[in-house]
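note to self: dont lose this again. the chain is below, predicted strucutre after it. 316 aa total, dont forget to put it in the shared folder this time
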Amino acid sequence: MKSRLSRFMIQLNADKWLLLLCIVLAFLAWQGIRKNLGYEVSVSNIAVDISVPEGWAVWEKSVNKVNIVFRGSREDIRYLNNEQLRVVIPVPTPKHGEERTIKLTKANLRNPTGAKVVSFSPSEVVVRLDQESSKQLPVKASVQGSLPAGLEVDRIVCTPASVNVTGAAQVLDEMQYIHTEAIELKDRQGSFKASVPIALPQAGRMRAEPDWVSVEFFVVTHTRTETLEKIPVRTLCAPGEKRQIDVEPSSINITVQGQQQRIEQLRTAEIFAYVNCLDLSEITGYDLPVVVDLPAGLQLLKSDPAAVHVRIGNAP
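---
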C-alpha cells in the first residue's frame, strides 16, 4: 500500500506543472462558459392570453401582464422584448364559473429566442370562464385634454352609433355601453372628425364588430351675454363746433355677446357710444340713433334706449 502511494506521489510530483496547467485551462473554460451563458435580464409587461375552446370566453383574469427573468447568452438576451414574447395558457376543458389557479411554466411561453426562463412574476394566474355571448352596445367617445379657451364641444356623433361586442356573458351583462380609445382635444380650433378604435376591456378575449368607428366633434364658440349699464353717450361734431349740445339721456345700457374670456376682460372705457351731429345745422332738437363701437370679437345685441334726444342751442 505504501509502495503504491509513494509511486503516485512521485508521478504527481513529476507532472505537477501539467496538472496545474490543466486546472488553469479548466478555470478559464468555465469562466468563458459562464460569461456567455450567465447573463440575466428581466422583461416586463408580457401579455397573458387564455386559450379556450370555441363558445367560451374569459370572465375574470387575475393578471393581464407578467414579468419574466431570463438567462442566456449575450445574443439571446439582446433581442428579448415584450412585443415578441407572449404567455398563452390553454384551458381545454372549461367549466362555467369555475375558478382555476394555473402555475406558469416555460411551456406557457411563446419565446422565439434561446434564452431560458428563470422565473415568472407573478408565478400563477387565476381565471374564471363563462359561456360566450354577444350584445349590441352604444358607443361613447372618450376624450383627453381640453379645448382652447372660448371653445366648447356642442355635441359628439359616433358612426356607427353602436357595435356588436362578443365576450363572456357575465361581463357583457354588466356593460351598458362601450368607449373608444381616448381622443385628444388639445389645440383643436374647431369642429373635426376622427377615426378611432374601440377600447375593449382587458377581461377576456372580447371583440367588437366593427372595431373602429368615426367620431365627429361639433365645436362651438363658448359665448356669454353681458349687460353693461351707464355707458356715456358722446357727441361727434365738426372741428371748432361752439354751439351748446345737450343729450338726454346722457347714458345708455347695452347688451353685448362674445367669448366668455373676452367678456370677463371687457372694460367700460373700451366702449364708445356716440351720436353723429356733424350734419346738424339747425338750432333745434333731434332724435338720433346711438352708435356703439365695440372691441373686436364682441357683438352688440341691444341698446337701451336705442335713440336719444339731442338739443342744439346757441353758443353760450
